[in-house]
Amino acid sequence: MIQLADARRIIAAAQKKAEEIGQPMNVAVVDEGGNLLAFERMANAWLGSIDISIKKAWTSRAFDIETQDLAKHSQSGDQFFGIHVSNDCKVMIFAGGIPLKKDGKVVGGVGVSGGSGKQDQTVAEAGAAAF
Length: 131
Prior knowledge:
Blueprint: H1 4-21, E1 26-30, E2 36-41, H2 49-62, H3 67-72, E3 97-102, E4 105-113, H4 117-129
Antiparallel strand pairs: 1-2, 1-4, 3-4
Helix pairs in contact: 1-4
């Protein structure tokens, strides 16, 4: 089970990486049920990315896959084409969502949005590593 203290540590690590790369981000952490546990928006992070970061965290938990990997399989002609419109369009297929694992079991997810896909992924990886 992921605790609020864990979520705060994940967010702090993600924000530290975002500051290092000079890109303000929105960072969300969800629990095992995909419920929002914690969220923070850095100063000047894009408003439009608030919802995206939360949905990236949810998507990574809902499917137990990094959103960047889900994106690879959701292109036209691939097995998950159209998945982004499932679940009332809640599924995000951009880099920056990572499932959080404890003892090999997915217990939550982190979602980051506010920069390029590569930046989002880098910041999400820093957050996940703090868990």
